[in-house]
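Exam revision sheet. Question 4 asks you to relate a sequence to its structure. Input first:
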Amino acid sequence: MDKSKELIHYFTELRLKCFAQHYHSLLDEKKDVESVLLELCQMETEKRYSAQVKRKIKQAGFPKVKTLAMLDYDKAPKLPRRMIETLSLCKFIEQKENLILVGDSGGGKTHLAIALGLEACKKLHSVKFFTACQLVNILMQEFQNGDFEKFMAKLKKCSLLIIDEVGYVPFSKTGAELLFQVFSNRYESGSIILTSNLNFSRWTDVFIDKTMTAALLDRLTHHATIITYDWGSIRFNQALTKKKTTKKK
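Answer key, structure tokens:
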């Protein structure tokens, strides 16, 4: 076996796909050995990073793709752009802090939660996305099957846990207690992004027990950034605009 074929063999064995694919073409450009190796290493690193990000996004379980670039600040003029730019750096995840998006339905809370989750994936943080109802149903199922602690251990390993739509559906007493344990477990040990259409004063409508609700809010808001959505529904306003445009035509 000549040296060239032997190199390709080792590249393949070592799973250096970019090395195997581009080695000859870069040599044909008559570059020096160091330049060839540097370029191959850059290609391999970029390819592996891209694969890691895709894997993180898939594991997160986002219901759809929503990016920061898709945010329309004209339709949500009170949305704090600089704060969001800071949040996109994901330092709050490294510091195990929370982000709470609370207020009007249709204002774009889920969009921002997903977009920041995607940014976290790009920085190779482990992320999981659930609606509150979905998470409570899973917790109840795991509890009944005797696998609750195992599931909680998995959740705790996530750098960022996104819980969407808290407040849309009231929980049973058991469901509320199990969700409370999730919040308690992550206190100062992992970040949460939470969206809710309810002001904090109404969280007892969902969690039932006043003492537990107070304890939950105390933990959740202690190290948290809170953004209040009070500009109404973007979706509803878009529908009205579309209707008016259609009438004019």
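Marking note for examiners. The first strand starts at residue 98 and ends at 103.
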